[in-house]
Amino acid sequence: MSKTWYPVISYENCTECLACFNKCKNGVFTLKNSCPVVVNPEGCVQGCHGCGNLCPVGAIEYVGDDTGWVPPGKKNAESESSCCEAGKINCCEG
């Protein structure tokens, strides 16, 4: 478990689908008025992107994440550009 890695929810984007809450078995989230809230950040497993990978709108990012991971539903212009420059097929379609 980690003190330097944990999810942060963008409530501007969150649709309250509860995918994150249902995925995490480490007690990181609780529900407040049917909205997921991070209450136990130390319960998050270092490097885990499980809840973020399930979020359909990319509303979850991680404190301490320097992996270059981009939440689903979000585009990263830098990674897309370098991907295109490398000539990878289908990386720039979207």
Brief account:
Keywords: 4Fe-4S, Iron, Iron-sulfur, Metal-binding. Residues 5-34, 35-65 form the 4Fe-4S ferredoxin-type domain. The protein has 94 residues and is an alpha+beta fold.
Jot down its keywords.
3 helices, disordered C terminus, 94 residues, Alpha-Beta Plaits, two-stranded antiparallel ribbon, 4Fe4S_Fe-S-bd, alpha+beta, 20% helix
Describe it for me?
The structure is a single chain. The C terminus is likely disordered. The protein has one domain: Alpha-Beta Plaits (2-Layer Sandwich). The chain is globular and about 30 Å long. A two-stranded antiparallel sheet has the order 1-4. Strand 2 and strand 3 form a beta hairpin. With 94 residues, the chain is α+β, with helices and mostly antiparallel strands. The protein is built from three helices and four strands, in the order E-H-E-E-H-E-H. It comes from Pseudobacteroides cellulosolvens ATCC 35603 = DSM 2933. This is 4Fe-4S ferredoxin-type domain-containing protein.
Secondary structural class: alpha+beta
User: Major beta sheet, specifics?
Assistant: 2 strands, antiparallel
Strand order of the largest sheet: 1-4
Oligomer: single chain
Q: Which residue ranges are poorly predicted, with pLDDT under 50 across at least 5 consecutive positions?
A: 77-94
Rg over C-alpha atoms, rounded to the nearest angstrom = 15 Å
What characteristic shape results from the CA principal axes? globular
Mean pLDDT: 84
Q: Note the gap between the termini.
A: 36 Å
String of helices and strands: EHEEHEH
* CATH-defined architecture: 2-Layer Sandwich
Q: How many strands in all?
A: 4
Question: Helix share of residues?
Answer: 10-25%
> How many domains make up the coordinates?
1
Query: Would you give the CATH topology?
Result: Alpha-Beta Plaits
The fraction of residues assigned to DSSP E strands is 15-25%
Helix segment tally:
3
The first-level CATH class is given as: Alpha Beta
GO molecular function: 4 iron, 4 sulfur cluster binding; metal ion binding
Domain 4Fe-4S ferredoxin-type: 5-34, 35-65
Organism: Pseudobacteroides cellulosolvens ATCC 35603 = DSM 2933
InterPro entries: 4Fe4S_Fe-S-bd, Fe-S_Ferredoxin
